[in-house]
């Protein structure tokens, strides 16, 4: 494994200063049911809606928030068009990882002049609550990055959406604060191409490189490079499969998603124990690890503020590096296709991604692949 520290970068020197993730939009088969799932099980609050009742004729969208996380679920209501074709081909999946910027014109110009393919030229959308400014570019697969400027817009989400005033009770007990990182899976041989894309087109730097000597089991392997933006707020690991005796989780994703896409999103919490207990109580399924993993954990990570028997009871993993430690856990796929899932992560100094857990985690994933007949 090679690990590199990013070069010092200031926001003033950054040609694409990204202030954070504005929202993640999922294109799904049924937006109303997706909204109910994330409200009743994950504790997100529905805040805005667009559809037939608001004058939108081809789709329905629900906006849900929890602290600094904003998810948008959009589904087709006609059989024609890009959205319906996307869902038919890929199933439910991430379509847009959108960023907060001060200047959508500059963001679009800086990226497209460096080679990005435009998805939307800078656009001003007026509404009753002001003007929303956006632009967008393409990245891996059919995922796009939208640049969003809300400085002159005071509405709940965007023009054309109406505020949801009473969506019913929201699940409680979990503490999900923000998007920690988003992981993209690309086809064999494409990892470096998209590493170059984020470096050259968007000004990201490489934080960490994991090769197949680090991320492997007896049966499969993958390679990963973690890219981060200039101020370190946005982190995007990019994965590709590596040669192995059997099919890797990355190849399984590509086989069912049918091209590159977003494999999982990590959500940061300050109370992983309480959050996992609450989610498990409502039926969220997590990957499990064998007792042997926890038997050796104290010697490897030391005190992480949570009793080892509690970690084992809940299936939470722990890792430590020179900067601190982290606790993490991964859900099983949250839809029928074995593609997208979530990670819950609690950080205590560590900026890493749990390298000490990779082998145990991948073996757990392989056990699930074997149940599906895909290993």
Can you describe this structure?
24% of the residues lie in helices and 33% in strands. The chain is α+β, with helices and mostly antiparallel strands. The strands form two sheets. It has a nine-stranded mixed sheet with strand order 1-12-13-14-11-15-18-17-16. Strand 13 (221-228) and strand 14 (235-242) form a beta hairpin. The longest helix has 15 residues, at 358-372.
Question: What is the first-to-last residue Cα distance?
Answer: 25 Å
Q: Uncertain segments of ≥5 residues (pLDDT<50)? A: 1-12
Gyration radius, rounded: 20 Å
Structural class: alpha+beta
Q: Summarize the helix and strand pattern as letters.
A: EEHEEEHEHEEEEEHEEEHEHHHEEEH
Q: Strand fraction band? A: 25-35%
β-strand number: 18
Shape: globular
Mean pLDDT: 90
Helix content: 10-25%
- What count of helical segments does DSSP give? 9
**Major β-sheet, in short?**
9 strands, mixed
Numbering strands along the chain, what is their spatial order in the largest sheet? 1-12-13-14-11-15-18-17-16
């Amino acid at each position: 494994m090679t690990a590199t520290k990013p070069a010092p970068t200031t926001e003033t020197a950054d040609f694409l200063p990204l202030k954070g993730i504005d929202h993640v939009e999922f294109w799904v088969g049924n937006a109303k049911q997706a909204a109910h799932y994330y409200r009743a099980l994950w504790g997100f609050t529905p805040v805005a809606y667009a559809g037939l009742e608001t004058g939108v004729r081809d789709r329905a969208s629900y906006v849900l928030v929890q602290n600094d996380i904003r998810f948008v679920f959009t589904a087709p209501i006609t059989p024609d068009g890009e959205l319906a074709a996307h869902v038919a081909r890929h199933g439910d999946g991430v379509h847009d990882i959108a960023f907060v910027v001060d200047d959508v014109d500059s963001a679009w110009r800086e990226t497209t002049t460096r080679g990005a393919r435009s998805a939307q030229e800078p656009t001003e959308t007026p509404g009753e609550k002001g003007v929303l400014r956006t632009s967008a570019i393409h990245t891996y697969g059919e995922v796009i990055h939208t640049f969003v400027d809300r400085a002159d817009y005071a509405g709940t989400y965007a023009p054309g959406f109406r505020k949801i005033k009473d969506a019913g009770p929201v699940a409680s007990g979990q503490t999900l604060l923000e998007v920690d990182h988003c992981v993209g899976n690309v086809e064999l041989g494409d990892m470096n191409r998209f590493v170059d894309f984020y470096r050259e087109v968007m000004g990201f730097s490489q934080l960490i490189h994991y090769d197949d000597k680090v991320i492997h089991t007896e049966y499969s392997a993958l390679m990963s490079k973690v890219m981060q933006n200039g101020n370190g707020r946005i982190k995007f690991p990019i994965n590709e499969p590596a040669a192995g005796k059997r099919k890797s989780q990355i190849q399984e994703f590509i086989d069912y998603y049918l091209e590159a896409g977003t494999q999982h999103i990590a959500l940061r919490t300050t109370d992983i124990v309480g959050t996992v207990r609450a989610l498990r109580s409502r039926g969220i399924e997590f990957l499990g690890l064998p007792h042997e993993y926890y038997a050796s954990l104290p010697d490897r990570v030391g005190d992480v503020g949570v009793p080892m028997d509690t970690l084992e009871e809940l299936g939470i993993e722990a890792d430590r590096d020179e900067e601190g430690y982290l606790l993490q856990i991964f859900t099983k796929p949250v839809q029928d296709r074995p593609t997208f899932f979530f990670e819950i992560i609690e950080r205590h100094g560590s900026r890493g991604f749990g390298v000490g857990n990779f082998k145990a985690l991948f073996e757990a994933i392989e056990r699930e692949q074997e149940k599906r007949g895909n290993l």
